[in-house]
Specification:
mainly alpha
């Protein structure tokens, strides 16, 4: 029955697209860019030479910022009217969200017997619809939930599977990275968790798809890798609080000083060292979901741009916390409601010294305008301290027993 609920919710989003089409509503801004990118590839128009693509509606004239292979990935959207394509993409995204929660609940180390994965996945998906990352992903017609599902399924299900399925470990990560570069960090994750063959397969898949695009569209591929990938101006104002990354935090704090990005990279390197330790620790404890989430949130922090709709990794986090909280984990019992409440909020806009009518930067507005950034950092520090405390307690118990 849990899957029936999810299918009904997905059907509701499809109906929403149909109603938008019938009423000529200006919806699906990012889906419009996806469609236009796929159409440009088919018609021989350049993807990156202009600030927007032919065929984009007036309310969504935006540049195509994804890697060239994304244009092939979005080809199935072309036959549908824009609003209907938006509804279809949202329906698939809702199902992908449920699939992620389902596999997390199946793989958790412990969960109460009543928390059946099918029903738990439906509950997690419905609650997450209330959060800003999921809501904005569906509102814009973004692809974030699908890419996240590809990574989660690859890491938790395909990698290490027996039989023929295991031979495809890493492929989904390679494909996801070829669409949007951020999933490349999960190649490193596979290496850290001892899956070097799968990591090599993911890297080879990514490289192979770049080679394919070089044959299909050499101009776009060369343009992307020699120019577009370094041009952050195409993405939007990276200092906005809608960008919840270390880079944006430093840019707002420094009033866009020239050293902002190098400083953000330095901070990211420090966090990466801590994340490395946590991933290795969780892997040793056979906690693959914990390890995966550490890598995912590190990616959100160190990426120069992590818009609010990129933070959909709260979905597997919510599923994990749900299982842990009802299994007696006190830390999870505190963190679960905090996660839901925090991510239903939109971070405050604040600039120094209060530009464009936004709140002036002070200690309170600084925290409120970077709340997503602080969340994984503080949670990671808490987990690290709890792990150290647990290790000391076990060592003391061993000495007493000896």
């Amino acid at each position: 029955m849990g899957w029936v609920v999810l299918c009904l919710v997905a059907a509701g989003y499809l109906l929403r697209g149909v109603l938008a089409l019938l009423n000529h509503l200006p919806e699906a801004g990012d889906t419009a860019v996806y469609q236009a990118g796929a159409a440009a590839l088919l018609n021989g128009h350049p993807l990156y030479d202009t600030d927007f693509l032919p065929g984009e509606p007036s309310y969504a004239q935006l540049p195509f910022t994804y890697a060239p292979f994304a244009a092939i990935f979005f080809l199935p959207l072309i036959p549908f009217p824009l609003q209907l394509a938006w509804g279809l993409l949202n329906a698939l995204s809702v199902l992908a969200m449920g699939l992620v929660a389902y596999f997390v609940l199946r793989k958790v180390a412990r969960r109460p017997a009543w928390l059946v994965p099918e029903w738990g996945a439906a509950a997690v998906a419905v609650v997450m619809l209330l959060t800003e990352p999921v809501g904005s992903t569906l509102g814009y017609g973004q692809v974030n939930l699908l890419l996240m599902a590809m990574v989660v399924v690859d890491v938790l299900v395909v990698c290490g599977a027996s039989g023929k399925l295991g031979r495809f470990g890493g492929v989904l990560i390679g494909v996801a990275a070829a669409i949007k570069l951020t999933p490349l960090i999960f190649v490193v994750h596979l290496v850290l968790t001892g899956r070097k063959t799968e990591a090599a397969r993911a890297a080879a898949t990514f490289a192979g798809l770049q080679g394919l695009m070089l044959l299909i569209s050499p101009h776009d591929t060369l343009r992307f890798w020699t120019h577009t990938v370094f041009d952050s101006s195409r993405i939007g104002p990276t200092q906005w609080s809608y960008n919840q990354s270390l880079s944006s935090l430093v840019r707002r704090l420094s009033d866009m000083a020239w050293w902002s990005q190098p400083a953000a990279y330095a901070m990211g390197a420090v966090l990466a060292i801590g994340a490395y330790g946590l991933v290795r620790r969780f892997h040793a404890l056979d906690r693959p979901i914990h390890a995966l989430l550490v890598t995912a949130f590190l990616a959100l922090l160190v990426s120069p741009v992590s818009w609010l709709h990129h933070w959909v990794w709260i979905v597997p986090l919510g599923a994990l916390l749900l299982a842990e909280a009802f299994s007696g984990n006190r830390f999870a019992q505190v963190l679960l409601p905090l996660t839901v409440v925090l991510f239903t909020q939109v971070p405050m806009h604040s600039m120094s010294p209060g530009e464009n009518g936004e709140a002036a930067l002070n200690p309170l507005t600084f925290v409120l305008s970077n709340e997503y950034v602080f969340f994984p950092i503080l949670a990671g520090m808490a987990v690290f301290l709890l792990q150290r405390r647990s290790t000391r307690v076990r060592a003391a118990e061993y000495e007493v027993a000896a």
